Amino acid sequence: MNPKLFRTSSTRIEPVLILLSIAYVILRYVVFGNVSPAHLPMYLLNKMICIYATGSLLLYALALISRDKCSAEKWLSRTMSTGFLHVMISLTMLHPGYYKKLFDGSQLSFTGELSMLAGVLASAVYWARYCNSSCIRGGKSVVPMWIGAAFLFLHVSVMGSGSWFDLSRYNGGLPPITLITAIPALATALILFSYWRFNPQQPQ
């Protein structure tokens, strides 16, 4: 793909991605679900951020393989900033009242701990990418970026795979957020792995 063409397209995509993230969460959880709009400031906003962040991550991967370094850095920056917000909000709300299936009583269950570990490792990979000044100047990433996407996929799949095949939980026919975010995470992992495998000297 022509880098200039991708850069133009990605600029147009961003507002669409934002609107889709907002619309999906409102429709699934408020209109067709039973979540009160009173949870918009944190709980619902966090879900919107998740959709936007994973969408941005996929756009980063597509920009990278399109050799559009400017757009790749832009989308990676979007992913990391919104990812940071997601981590902060999630830690604030990490309570059985919000994430009952991750807890066994007052403590995290095995599933909860595995999901959180995968999320922490994904964050560590992206933070290392940001902190590595040689990478920012165009050097190679310390850890291949597909590993971070793979950890991200593990994070959301462990958290929500139990509800993926239960169609009764598809409010308004809309799949859970974990499935919606797992798809771009997996796609990104596969794209970046292929890119790393066949272009080992190229930066990620």
Unreliable runs: 133-139
Which percent range describes the beta-strand content? under 5%
The radius of gyration over CA amounts to: 17 Å
Number of helices: 7
Classified by CATH, the class is: Mainly Alpha
Structural class: mainly alpha
What would you call the shape? globular
Assembly state: single chain
Number of domains: 1
Helix content: over 70%
Overall pLDDT level? 88
How many strand elements?
A: 2
Element pattern in H and E = HHHEEHHHH
Strand order of the largest sheet: 1-2
**Largest sheet features:** 2 strands, antiparallel
Ends apart, CA distance between termini: 18 Å
The CATH architecture classification is Up-down Bundle
CATH topology: Four Helix Bundle (Hemerythrin (Met), subunit A)
Could you give a short description of this structure?
The protein is mostly helical and 204 residues long. It has 7 helices and 2 strands; from the N terminus they run αααββαααα.
Explain what the structure shows.
- With 204 residues, the chain is mainly alpha-helical.
- The protein has a single domain (3-198), classed as Four Helix Bundle (Hemerythrin (Met), subunit A) (Up-down Bundle), CATH 1.20.120.
- It contains seven helices and two strands; from the N terminus they run αααββαααα.
- The chain has a two-stranded antiparallel sheet with strand order 1-2.
- The chain is globular, with a radius of gyration of 17 Å.
